[in-house]
Structures are given as C-alpha cells and as structure tokens.
Write a structure and sequence with these properties.
The protein is an alpha+beta fold. The protein has four domains: 106 residues, no CATH class; 73 residues, Immunoglobulin-like; 67 residues, no CATH class; 143 residues, Nuclear Transport Factor 2, Chain: A, CATH 3.10.450. The protein is built from seven helices and 22 strands. The strands form six sheets. Strands 11, 12, 14, 15 and 16 form a five-stranded antiparallel beta sheet that branches. Strands 21-20-19-18-22 form a five-stranded antiparallel beta sheet. The chain is rod-shaped. This is PEGA domain-containing protein.
C-alpha cells in the first residue's frame, strides 16, 4: 500500500514537473521576442494588415490603431525593402536592450523608428517579460511660400500657415499616407497645390513637409492706360494705367487675362489669353471701322468748308471745327475784309490715309485722333482795289489733322503741314 501511494506521489510530482516545464516553455514561446519580430515581418511579406494590426498596442498618444494605418504600413514596407530592413534592425536592437535592462523603449528614444518595441509593465504569468509593438505619433511641420494659406489634411482644414515663417505644426499623426493641400485665396485667383505625405520616419521626428504654391506677380501693359483688367472673365477693379502689377496668381496657363476699354462708340475688348508668364501686353484696336470712317468724313468736311469759308470770308461756313479755331479764322477773315483782300479757290480732290489714324485718350472721357490727308486744290488771292483778277494756281499739300470727340461728333481743332509724309495705300478719296 505504501508502495502504491509512493508511486502515486512520484507520478503526481513528475506530472507537476512536466506541467511546469511545459508551461515554462509555453510562456517562453508566447513571450519570445524573436517570434514577435517574425510575426511582424511575416505580416509585411504576406500583405496581411489584419495580422499586423493584432501586434500593435495603442499608440504612444494612447489612441487606438486603426486598420487603415496597418494597411499603409504593410504597403509602404512591402514596397521598400531597405526601409523594412532598417525597421527590423532597430526593433531587434531595441528588444535586445530591453531584455538586458540597459534601456527602456519610449518615444524619447531618438533611434526608434515609427514602430518600436515596448516592454509591458506586467510580466506574463508573473515570470516572463512580455513585449509589444507601438506606433509613434508625429507633429509634422508644414511650410508653404504664402503665409495665411489654409492647410488641408485629407480634405479637412488642419490650420492656417503662419504669416511670418509660413509654418504650421500639423498633428499629432500616426504613420501613414496623407493628402496635404495648401490653399491660398488671393485677391484675384486661388492658388492650390496638393502633395502626398508618406509619414514613415526612421526616427523620433518627422521631416518638414513643403507644399509650394506657384504664384507670381504679373505686369500688365496696354496702349490704353484706362483699359480695365479682367481675370478669368471677371473685372478685378483695376485699370492698366502706366503698367499695373497684379498677383499673386498662377502662371501655369490655368488662368486667363484680357482688357477692355469703354469708348463713347462702344466697348473694345482684347483677345483673352492664358497667363503663362510675368508680363502681359495688349494693344487695343480702339477705332472701329465705322469710327474711322466718321473721323475721315469729319476731316474732309472741314477741309472742303475751308475753301468755301475763305471765298466768302465767313467763318460760319466752316463745318466740324472747334469754336476756338473758328474764332481764330473769324478774326483772320475780318482782317481780309478790312484790307479788301479776296480769295478764289476750290478743293479738287482729297485723300485721307486710314492707316495713319491714331487715337489719344487724355482722360477717361477726353479723346482725340490724328489723320493724314493730302489735298489737291487751286487758289489765288487778290485785292479788290485792283482790276487784276489772277487765275487760280494748282497746288497740293499733305496735312495732319487733329480732331476731338465732342458731344457725339468729331471736330477739327488743330492742323499742321505734314511736309513730305507719305500716305499708305489704304485711303479714302473724295472728289471736291
């Protein structure tokens, strides 16, 4: 009986020893740091984000790690062999230092990557050291070249870039891939640029992210300083003047510019062109064909009336002439009458050069135009006190006429000899 009890006792003891040994090896297996790294590497190599997610504890900020984060890590390390090797190497080094008690892994360890090893405070079964993987969270400095730009993270506003250094501390963010956009609402257009942030640092800090905005200042010129500037079809409330600088604005061709000028005879619009440089120059054809004809006809009417007025020595016969010039000629005719001076003559032919027409705008509502004309005529002067009546002598003269737009009409207020100026072939001719 004693022998039987002894056998039972020995068997129980042996079982207990075997169980203890088994539990030891089981505990050692469950807490084996090498196995943890193998599972980590396997989940990367086999593209298993769910398996990887099961290895992560909460982040260093205490936030739960979501599947999207695990997917991003699997995708990144699965495609970048050197990065995966660097992370595994650092994890092995961390666990070795944790095992011999020479260090405590934490977010203050500058050598740790975005994923790091952490020794749990409680031992497994009160005996075995147990390890887990944790993720760092990062503050990412975002810079842009325009202070006041809105910084968007995956479509949601993360903050405003500072006016001074134009830098925003964005986060904290877990490792992953993010879409970061800078949006600057300028006075004339909105500048935008979106970049991808691959946040997988191999250290305790994230590199600054630059989101450059392509905006320039554009100098606008026109032959009409009163022309208004339009961006993308919208009047921006500025005129060209001596040269207008506008911006910032994208010069990649995504915006358009044109100018418009208002005249009494209508609005003239330039061609609309993409903004692809820092200078835009426009030449407005302010004079329509109809307006050119009106100017030429007015100049001819004055020239023809000149001969009639001299024959009659009467300034009232003048047509399309400024009141000041009419007064000047009235004084001249009075002198002719007083001196018994007479004139015989007539206009035989007049030719006006359309291509010589030039418009000058003195202010927002004061317009003048110049045009060249060649007159063929015959004339002679004589005094009534003498019986001699001379025959008219043929002559030709090229004259520059300056006309002013006044109350809906073009009137001549200045003329001068143009010497040997040559007319183009684009002329309008009048007989008499």
């Amino acid at each position: 009986m004693t022998s039987k009890k002894m056998k039972i006792t020995i068997g129980a003891a042996a079982f207990a020893v075997l169980a203890a040994v088994g539990l030891y090896f089981l505990g050692n297996y469950l807490t084996d740091e090498q196995r943890l790294l193998e599972r980590f590497e396997s989940s990367i190599d086999n593209g298993q984000p769910d398996k990887l997610l099961s290895l992560f504890a909460a982040s260093d900020e205490g936030a739960a790690v979501e599947r999207a984060t695990a997917e991003a890590i699997v995708s990144y390390l699965g495609a970048d062999g050197p990065a995966k090797h660097a992370v595994l190497s650092r994890l092995k080094s961390e666990i070795a230092r944790l095992s011999d008690g020479s260090a405590e892994a934490s977010t203050n360890d500058g050598e740790s990557a975005f994923v790091y090893a952490h020794k749990k405070e409680k031992k497994r079964w009160f005996v075995f050291d147990d390890y887990e993987l944790k993720l760092r969270s990062y503050k990412v400095p975002v810079t842009t070249n325009f202070g006041g730009a809105r910084i968007m993270l995956n479509g949601e506003e993360a903050g405003i870039a500072g006016v001074g250094g134009s830098t925003l501390q964005m986060g904290p963010l877990l490792p992953g891939k993010y879409k970061v956009k800078a949006v600057y609402a300028g006075k004339y257009t909105t500048l935008e640029n979106e970049v991808e942030l691959a946040l997988f640092p191999l250290g305790s800090t994230a590199h600054p992210l630059e989101v450059p905005l392509k905006g320039e200042y554009v100098d606008v010129f026109s032959n009409n300083g009163f022309a208004r500037i339009f961006i993308n079809g919208e009047d921006i409330g500025l005129s060209v003047e001596e040269g207008q600088r506008i911006g910032p604005i994208a010069t990649d061709g995504s915006n358009t510019i044109h100018v418009e000028a208002d005249y009494p005879w209508g609005t003239v619009k330039s061609e609309e062109r993409p903004i692809d440089g820092t200078r835009a120059e426009f030449k407005l054809s302010a004079l329509t064909d109809e307006t050119k004809e009106q100017i030429v006809d007015a100049a001819h009417a004055f020239a023809a009336s000149w001969y009639e007025a001299f024959r009659e020595r009467d300034a009232e016969r003048l047509r399309n002439v400024h009141s000041d010039r009419k007064a000047d000629l009235a004084s001249h005719f009075a002198d002719m009458v007083a001196g018994d001076e007479h004139y015989i003559g007539k206009l035989k032919r007049a030719v006006f050069d359309r291509d010589s027409l030039r418009l000058d705008q003195l202010d927002a509502s004061d317009y003048s135009a110049t045009v060249l004309g060649r007159l063929d005529y015959e004339e002679a002067y004589y005094y009534g006190a003498f019986d001699f009546r001379p025959d008219p002598v043929a002559g030709s003269q090229t004259i520059s006429y300056r006309l002013r737009y006044d109350n809906g009409k073009w009137i001549v207020y200045e003329w001068s000899d143009a010497g040997s100026a040559v007319l183009s072939s684009n002329v309008k001719s009048y007989e008499g």
